[in-house]
Amino acid sequence: MSTQNQISVEIPQSVIEEVNEKLQECKKLLTPYLQALTSEEKESIFKMGDKTVATVQKVKGYMETNPEFIPKYMDKKEFLKDEALVSALDPIGNLATQLASDIRDTTILAGSEALTAAMFYYGSAKEAYDKGVPTAKPIYEDLSQRFLRKSYKKAPKQ
Questions:
Q1: pLDDT one-digit tens code per residue, 78-137
Q2: Sign of the alpha-carbon dihedral angle for 38, 42, 48, 49
Q3: Global pTM?
Q4: Burial 3-21 (b: 16+ CB within 10 A, else e)
Q5: Are 117 and 135 in contact (CB under 8 A)?
Q6: Alpha carbon of 92 to those of 3, 76, 85, 89, 105: distances in Å?
Q7: Could you tell me if 13 and 119 are in contact, meaning their C-beta atoms sit under 8 angstroms apart?
């Protein structure tokens, strides 16, 4: 286990509370305009990706310069609303993804360091218990419950 400390940060509670408030504000502001999908719905719909964004934007441009090719069954107004919504939400989604990734990475790193330190403490308590230090017994017994190995016996064949 490494003892190298890669992160040493304390986020003031006031900052955590402010971030939480602002994220709640963002969620509240956007909720009336967002729509959740089920897994099945996500799987079944035609999706726009990085390559097709350019196609949609080109079509938008062509619709302005060559409207004669807009089919009668196509709702131009809805197409333009959908394209505008994607263009508006995409940068917000990118920012949210970056923020979530950085939060996740920081949590992983801090969690790894905290768990490593906890394992050192557990090892020290176990060593003290093994040497008969009476105050170590309840600590070791409590913490050792976290490390009980479950036996995985195979069921007898019938």
A1: 999 999 999 999 999 999 999 999 999 999 999 999 999 999 999 999 999 999 999 999
A2: positive
A3: 0.77
A4: eeeeeeeeeeeeeeeeeee
A5: no
A6: 38, 25, 11, 5, 20
A7: no
